Amino acid sequence: MISKKTKTGPVLIFLVILIIAFTYRYTSKRIQFYGYYDKVWAHRVNDLKKLKSSEDNFKGIELDIVYQEEGNWLDVYHPPAPSKGLSFANYVKHIKNNKVGVWLDLKNLTKENHTAIITLIDSAIVSTELDKSKIIIESSHPDCLDIFREKGYRISYYLPAKMYLKTEKEVLNNINDIKKNIENNSHLELSAYFEDYPIVAKYFPLRKKNFWVLHSSYSPKILIDYKKIRRMLKDSTVETVLTPYNNFNKNL
Predict the structure, then answer these.
(1) How many domains does the chain divide into?
(2) What CATH number did the domain enclosing 44 receive?
(3) The pLDDT of residue 250
C-alpha cells in the first residue's frame, strides 16, 4: 500500500518548484547578476506603477524621453508605442527614493532642441532631491551632450547597434567614427547591448561603459550567455547594466 506521504511528496515538490518559478519572474535578484546587484538597473520604467516597484528593488531606473516641440515638454514613452501623456516633470515628482539612479534615454535629441531639453530636465530635477551625478543622459548624438555634463549630469553615447553582427570592415568603420566622436571628451561614457561588450572593451578598455541585457526571466539564452554576462559584470569600467523588470503590482 502506498502511504499518503508518498503520494503527497511529489505534489508538494512540484508546488514548491512552481512557486519558486513564479516568484523568480518578478524578482530583481536574477542569478546571472549575483554579486553585482549594485550595477543593475530596471529597464524601460515608463509608467508610475512600475516606477513605484522599481525604485524599491533596484539601484536605478531607465526611462525613455521624447521631446514634444508642440507644447515644449518631455514625454515619457518609447516609440512606436503610443504616448500616455506622462510628462517627465510629473514623473519625477513620484520618485520617493532620492538615492535612486536615473537613466534618461533621449530619443530625439538634436542641436536644435538640446537647449530646450536641458532646461526642462533641470527645472524638473530642481524640485526633487535627486543627485545629478547619478543621472545618466544618453543619446546617439554625442555632440549634443556636453551641455548636460556642464550641468553636472553623467553623459553616455548610445553606440551604433549590433556591431557583433557586422563584418570586420563595418566594425572598424564604426570604431573610427566612435573615436572621432569621443575625442577630447573623457567624461563621455559608452552604452550598448551586452553582445557588443567584447568589441567595446577591446577598443575602449578604460572608458566607462553601460550595457543592457534584455533576456526574459525564463529565456534559455540566460544559460547560453551566462559567462559573457559575468565577464562583463566583473569589468570595473562597466558602471550600469539594464535588465527587464516585471511589475507584480501593475494591475493593482
Answers:
(1) 1
(2) 3.20.20.190
(3) 54
Residue 179 is inside which H or E element, if any?
helix 168-182
Cell digits of residue 92 = 519625477
Local structure of residue 248 (DSSP, 8 states): T
Instruction: Read off the pTM.
Output: 0.89
Please give the single-letter amino acid code of residue 8.
T
Any domain includes 203: yes
Answer whether residue 252 is part of any domain: no
Range of the domain at 184: 34-243
Biggest distance spanned by C-alpha atoms of the chain: 81
- 21 within domain boundaries: no
Supply φ then ψ for residue 240, to 5 degrees: -140, 140
User: How far is Cα 214 from Cα 193, in angstroms, rounded to an integer?
Assistant: 9
Cβ–Cβ < 8 Å for 192, 159: yes
Does residue 12 lie within any of the structural domains? no
Residue whose C-alpha cell reads 534618461 in the numeric block? 104
pLDDT at position 4 is 56
Asked whether residue 68 carries a pLDDT value surpassing 60, the answer given is yes
Residue 204, C-beta contacts closer than 8 angstroms, at least 6 positions apart: 178, 182, 190
Q: Determine if the peptide bond prior to 80 is cis (ω within 30°).
A: yes
Give residue 2's pLDDT.
53
Provide the pLDDT for residue 12.
Answer: 66
Decide if pLDDT at 20 tops 50. Answer: no
> Which band of pLDDT confidence, cut at 50, 70 and 90, is reported for residue 251?
very low
52 neighbors 46 (Cβ within 8 angstroms): no
